[in-house]
């Protein structure tokens, strides 16, 4: 079934859309069109470098032609406008080729992370009624072709599995491209470009519908703030499918500006530093635990990192203490980023004073980003006090894809997204992230919805009840702890058996509880719900 793009989620009311257009935020561009324009303007400039296992490069012209040929091949296989295609590729050149090919025909990439396994991918494929799934052959020792074979059985609508590399029983991606048969009728700028994943607070991850217009505005805004231009050489260290390395300013921002994106196969300094040196990298984005590792490794001084001008750090709270050490160690500027795949992105600015850069998480991209900080009753708190962050604006969604019930809770009636973050605003308008009201664990930037893991653990025959909470961790910021109540009379279980059970259910490894503790009962709130706040404070004893 092909759904008309743009109709499966609430979108901006006409008045807002008109305002965002009039302000010049939404310019009527599409991703396919942008690549075409850049290829015409500077065909021979290098757009993309994939250094592993051997160095491959794509000029803007080559990337554009490649996207055309792949788009034609996808179209010849019946993939068209509005069709969903689950893309689960690591940081390889094929990722960029595939998504631009899909943009061009108006098919919607659904971005799975390389760490996702059967539970997540089969849900993405069935929920989105995906017609195709794109995988590597193997990645980090895991065979994605076998996963694809299993997923295929669970998602009957999946007509194609394309493999970058050795295909096994599936279709090699290399066989897809063919001569374009005229130019496909592309999507319109206000239509959906892709579905991004939410960090999630619920049993299953929600999908975030982003349009060409809104996402391209966030790229332009990010580029301006970060100083991205044609000379930028950006290293994609985090998984390319995540919103942060994709758009803040990310590889899409850099391609928009005509710069060069270099894909880093692994984030560790041993892999990344030689690439920074060899490729003369000027900019990159890191999550706080990685920024710590880089800061320490840089002190060893074995690599020439002098080309680096800017490191963006975000995705989870970066302590001021760690932030202070980054600039001297890496010899570049620091910018903190506090963003979310749903939209709103905040950056510290290059002309902020150093104290603001290390102690705040920045301020919004756009003058039209509306930010409210409210108490539990939804009233604005006095300026400078803590509260829950609500936001609405030209690149923040008005609703998740096909999730009307959840949308009724996650958005206010007048369209503000309830971020679930507890923030405070300084007189300069910078936000400080002080905590979280939503039930989520932020494991070094990787988000875990406790409910998703609780549902899995509950399926264990010996388990009566479970509650998953965060535990502070000096390196990751937070780790996960599952408190488990066993059924009376059940065989005693070891923590390792609970972890194995979760892993065997086929979820991403980062979601497997780091710690498991058996208890006799949970504390309850006045209304009889499990008191997670109290559980979290007992977890702090760990
Ligand atoms: C980014 O996006 P998501 O969708 O994986 O996660 C969003 C959530 C935020 O609501 C907040 O809870 C947390 O991640 N977060 C931060 C943070 N940046 C994100 N918490 C504290 N300090 C920060 N700097 O994580 C994301 C998307 C675009 C750019 C950057 C990060």
Automatic annotation (TrEMBL):
Q: Give the enzyme class.
A: transferase
- Domain named AMP-binding enzyme C-terminal is located at 452-529
Task: Kindly state which keywords UniProt assigns to this record, in alphabetical order.
Answer: ATP-binding, Ligase, Nucleotide-binding, Nucleotidyltransferase, Transferase
Per the record's keyword annotation, is rRNA-binding included, yes or no?
A: no
Q: Which domain of life is it from?
A: Bacteria
Span of domain AMP-dependent synthetase/ligase = 36-401
Q: Which GO terms describe its molecular function?
A: 2,3-dihydroxybenzoate--[aryl-carrier protein] ligase; ATP binding; nucleotidyltransferase activity
**Pathway this chain belongs to:** Siderophore biosynthesis
Q: What is its EC number?
A: 2.7.7.58
Q: Which CDD domains match?
A: 23DHB-AMP_lg
Q: Which GO terms describe its biological process?
A: siderophore biosynthetic process
What Pfam family is a match, any one? AMP-binding_C
Q: State the family named in the UniProt similarity comment for this chain.
A: Belongs to the ATP-dependent AMP-binding enzyme family.
Q: What is this protein called?
A: (2,3-dihydroxybenzoyl)adenylate synthase
The organism is: Streptomyces asoensis
